[in-house]
């Protein structure tokens, strides 16, 4: 056991706003003793944006491009202080998210399709009046339940200079303000899988009036699942300070049991590891990486959060697909994979050269491939089968679903991110009260009637 444990930074960056807490439902109250929970489906991007002419090659290219863009986005956010609303996005690369949350806001209800994002505690949607928004955007002036939060509200941490009557937020990206608007409160309506329609009253959210770089008409906002600080209350806290998401195989975009569970009844089972909240972010301790029975020779200090430089540590993220490791750890893993395939499968050269690829098919050629695992303090293991270690680049080529972090820029060489390919076939749960993170390998269908 190493004497100095690695610190793993979960990508849940907090933003300083929300509203009061009321939980109501249109259905009968849960049975006595049963914790309240809100269960809603997560919608896969490829089920929403289905293209019958799409190819495996095109899907793989989206995966790589999106993962690279997301990496830089999160790394820039991590270098900001927890109370700073500025973030940065790498320009020129499409950031197609993996999963969406479907809900409605207001009375009468207006449907929303928001990106699931554990990298932000702010929920925001496109609102009228709005620049670069489609006509069906939410209009708060037509809702009977909308209220603007004043700047002197206890839920607003702005300095109130210039806009004393409203609480403004401004999330900045590389080329200017990407989401800018006011913080308000509204009724949220969810179609849940276990209790029908569920309403959350007085939810604090961002009403975005300017959405530069978010011109994609397929989604209407961001559904943040980040943590809260002493000056902010996230939606997660509103329903009980616990949440979990269960994800099936990402290649099966019609899988009906991808789900998000919010509330005290979230599924907290499986291995658990302690979390620590520092500056509004969650950390856990990473102790090692193994492949098969072999613990890889990787210094855990490579993953340690640097006290003087923010671009270090390891994120677990809901928005990226590939996993990124610090260069030394990546090279050690790559060498081990190359040794395992030596003489068995021909390598397939790719551009750029950091891609480690082979001629073959994952389902056909990787039967019996040894499991890879991330090992955390407390005995929690995230164990990956071949489909969670590799992705299909084309019908006849597969690649390692891990890359070196420094290809995104030298300043990011100490930062790592564990993406959604590594988290597929798991229920990942967060207990924000006891500060525990849970990993449970499971078919999500088994949780549907839990």
From TrEMBL:
This is Peptidase A1 domain-containing protein. Residues 1-20 form the signal peptide. One of its GO terms (biological process) is proteolysis. The active site is at residues 117, 317. The keyword Endoplasmic reticulum does not apply. It comes from the Eukaryota. GO terms for molecular function: aspartic-type endopeptidase activity. Belongs to the peptidase A1 family. GO terms for cellular component: extracellular region. Keywords: Aspartyl protease, Glycoprotein, Hydrolase, Protease, Signal. The keyword Glycoprotein applies. It holds the Pfam family TAXi_C. Residues 99-440 form the Peptidase A1 domain.
């Amino acid at each position: 056991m190493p004497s100095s444990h690695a610190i793993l930074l979960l990508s849940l960056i907090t933003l300083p706003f929300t509203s009061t807490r009321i939980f109501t439902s249109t259905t009968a109250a849960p049975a006595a003793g049963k914790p309240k929970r809100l269960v809603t489906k997560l919608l896969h991007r490829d089920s929403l944006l289905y293209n019958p002419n799409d190819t495996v090659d095109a899907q793989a290219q989206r995966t790589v491009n999106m993962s690279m863009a997301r990496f830089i986005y999160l790394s820039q956010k991590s270098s900001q202080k927890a109370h700073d609303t500025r973030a940065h996005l790498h320009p020129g690369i499409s950031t197609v998210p993996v999963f969406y949350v479907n809900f409605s806001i207001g009375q009468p209800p207006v449907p929303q399709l928001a990106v699931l994002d554990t990298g932000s505690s702010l929920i925001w949607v496109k609102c009228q009046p709005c620049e670069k928004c489609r006509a069906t955007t939410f209009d708060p002036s037509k809702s009977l339940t909308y209220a603007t939060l004043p700047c002197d509200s206890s839920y607003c941490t702005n300095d109130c200079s210039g806009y004393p009557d409203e609480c403004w937020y401004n999330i900045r990206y590389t080329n200017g303000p990407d989401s800018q608007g006011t913080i308000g409160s509204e009724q949220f309506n969810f179609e849940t899988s276990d209790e029908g329609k569920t309403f959350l009253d007085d939810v604090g959210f961002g009403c975005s009036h300017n959405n530069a770089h978010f011109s994609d008409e397929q989604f209407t906002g961001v559904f943040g699942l980040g943590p809260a600080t002493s000056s902010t209350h996230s939606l997660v806290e509103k329903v009980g300070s616990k949440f979990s998401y269960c994800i099936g195989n990402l290649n099966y975009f019609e899988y009906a049991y991808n789900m998000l569970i919010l509330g005290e009844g979230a599924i907290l089972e499986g291995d658990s590891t302690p979390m620590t909240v520092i500056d509004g972010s969650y950390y856990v301790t990473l102790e090692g990486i193994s492949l098969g029975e072999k613990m890889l020779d990787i210094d855990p200090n490579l993953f340690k959060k640097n006290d003087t430089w923010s671009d270090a540590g390891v994120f677990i993220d809901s928005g990226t697909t590939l996993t990124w490791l610090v260069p030394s750890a990546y090279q050690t893993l790559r060498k081990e994979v190359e040794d395992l395939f030596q003489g068995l499968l021909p390598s397939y050269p790719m551009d750029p050269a950091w891609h480690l690829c082979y001629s073959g098919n994952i389902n056909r050629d990787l039967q019996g491939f040894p499991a890879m695992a991330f090992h955390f303090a407390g005995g929690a293991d995230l164990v990956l089968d071949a489909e969670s270690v590799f992705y299909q680049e084309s019908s006849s080529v597969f690649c390692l679903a891990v890359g070196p972090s420094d290809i995104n820029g030298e300043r990011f060489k100490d930062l790592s991110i564990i993406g959604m390919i590594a988290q597929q076939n798991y229920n990942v749960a967060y207990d924000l009260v006891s500060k525990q993170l849970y990993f449970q390998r499971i078919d999500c269908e088994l949780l549907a009637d839990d």
